[in-house]
Write the C-alpha cells for this entry.
Amino acid sequence: MKTFTLTHGFSLRTSKRASSSLVEAPRPDTVALLPGWIPYVKPRLLVKEGDAVKLGTPIFEDKRNPFVVFPSPGGGVVERIRFGPRRRIDEVVIRLDEIEPCETFASIPPSKIAETEADTFRHLLIKGGAWPLLRSLPFRDHPSVEENPYHIIVTLGLAGGHQARADIALAGEEEAFLNGLAILSRFSPRVHVIAPKKIGALSQKIESCLTARIRGSYPAGDPGHYLYRIRKSPEENRSWYIEAQDLVALARFVTSGCHHTKRVYAVGGNAVLKCRHVVSRLGAPVSLLGDGQAEGARHIGGTPFSGGYLPATGYMNLHHKGLTLLPPGDEEDTFGFLRGGYDRPSLSRTFFSVFNKRPLDLDCGFHGEERPCINCSRCATVCPVEILPQFIMKCMGAGEVEEALAHGLLDCIECGLCSYVCPSKIELLETLTQSKAQYRKERDG
Ligand code: SF4
Ligand code: SF4
C-alpha cells in the first residue's frame, strides 16, 4: 500500500463534527429523487403524480442517453413532482407504502462474478438503474454506457469529517464491498481503493484491499486528486470512480436483483444539537437526519465547501453522504472589529483566530460581498491539484477556453476550497464548474 501526501488543501477547525456514535433514523414517510442535483443529466420523466411505483421502478431517464434510467428510491405512490425555474425537475417525492413493493431484476451470485463478462454486468446495471452509481472523471457525470475505464477508483471518504466515515458505514458490509471490487475488476484490471489517512480502524478485510492512504487535509481521499497524482498519460483521464457505500449498493443489486437503499450519513455543523452518524436510506428527508436542530439552520448536502443548500423540507441526493447544518450568520456583528476575528475560522493570518487554538464555530455568513480579484493567490495556495483558479477564471471571462484548458481547467476536482478562502468572495467553484460544463458542451456539440 502506498501513502500519498496532499500538500495543499485545508480543513476547518470546527467545533462540531459528526462523532462516531451511530443512531438509526425513524422510517421516513416519504423519500425523493432530486434530478436537478445530478450533474449534466437531462431528465425526462417516466412517471406522473399519483402513479404507483415499486422500489427500483424507473422515475426518469437521461435524455442524452435514454438507456440510463434513475430508479425510485422507495415503493409507494408519486406524491409530488416539484419543478424549479424553466421547468427544471427539482424533486420527485414518493410516499412510501407500509410494505414496499420492489422490482426484481436478473442477478448474478457472488460465486459467478469472476467468470462473468463486463458487458453482462454493464447490461444488468443499465437495465436496473444502478449504472448512475458509477461516475466518470473529470466531469463527475455517470459514465457513457459504451465506455471502458482505464482506472477505477473506489474512495472510502474524504478527510475533514464532512462525509460518513467508512469504518462506520461499512461495518457489516465487508462481503458486499469485496463483491463490488470483484465486479469492478471485470471492467478494468486497475481498481484502486483509497482512503484518507485519518479515519477510524477499518476491518481487516477492507484494510487488506487498500491501494493507497492519502495523508493531509480536506479533500484527501478525493478520487480526482488521486488520479491527478498517479496518471502518466492522457489516456488515463478516462477513469471512473465510486464511493464505498455506493459500491456496496451496486454489489448488493447485482447479487440480489433488488436495490439496496441503506445509507449512513455524517451529520454535523454548529446548528445541529447532536453531531453523529445516522443510518437511514437513499433520498431520506433532511428533517429526519438533523434531529434536534437549532432554529433557522441552513442545511448543506455534501461538504460545506462544495455541497449545496437544501431546504429544511428537502431530501438527500443520490450521491450525498453528509449533511451539515449551519446557523445563517446574517445577524449584525456590532463592534465585531474589536475582537479582531479571534473566533472567526479562516485561512487568513490577518485575524486573531490564528492564535486561537480551540475549535471554532462556523456559520453561513459571507462577511462581505464580491469584489474584484486582488491577486492574493490564496486560492492557488489551497488548490489540491495545484492549478491557478484565478487565471482560469480570467481566461474564461475573456473567452479563452484553450488557455483555461492549458491552465488545468479539467484538473479541477470541484472541492470548493478556492471559493471558501477567497477574500474577494468570488465564486470560483461555480465559475470553474460551469466552465467545465461549457467546454464539454462545445466539445460534444
Ligand atoms: S480550482 Fe478546483 S480543485 Fe482547485 S481549489 Fe478550486 S475547486 Fe478545488
Ligand atoms: S483568492 Fe480570490 S482574490 Fe485572491 S487571487 Fe484568488 S480569486 Fe483573486
